[in-house]
């Protein structure tokens, strides 16, 4: 996945930006010798985006929703660690991270909610297209045409 694709998908964009911000913040925590909190915060904050990215290659609608729910749980854990930082003396301000995390939570909630709505016809076609894409990916991955890398992700149809 390249930055152009990331920038076209709001949840990918926000989660990637958040991971970069969290990395810089945890680096600052390391400088302050807050190692344990920095490690916990780094793991949970980057896991949000990792699971969102993984959801783009879900095997089914249920798998897609499950991966986003894992991201939501990681966001909740990250919120906990950030609240500790926010309420302790000597920690750098993290309001910008909490605000970005709130945006991600709202997007995740919306995507999960809309993806759960079952429309049998839509579900059939999305399942069919995901199957077709998996066949296409297998056959085109050996191709030198580059079609595979520019093929749209079917998971975007779930939004």
Task: Describe, in plain words, how this protein is organized in 3D.
This protein is mainly alpha-helical and 159 residues long. It folds into 2 domains: 3-117, 23S rRNA-intervening sequence (de novo design (two linked rop proteins)), CATH 1.20.1440.60; 118-159, no CATH class. The chain contains 7 helices and no strands. The longest helix has 26 residues, at 61-86. The radius of gyration is 18 Å and the shape is elongated.
What keywords describe this structure?
mainly alpha; de novo design (two linked rop proteins); 0% strand; elongated
Strand runs, count: 0
How large is the radius of gyration?
18 Å
CATH architecture of the largest domain: Up-down Bundle
Q: Please report which band the strand proportion falls in: under 5%, 5-15%, 15-25%, 25-35%, 35-45% or over 45%.
A: under 5%
The number of domains is 2
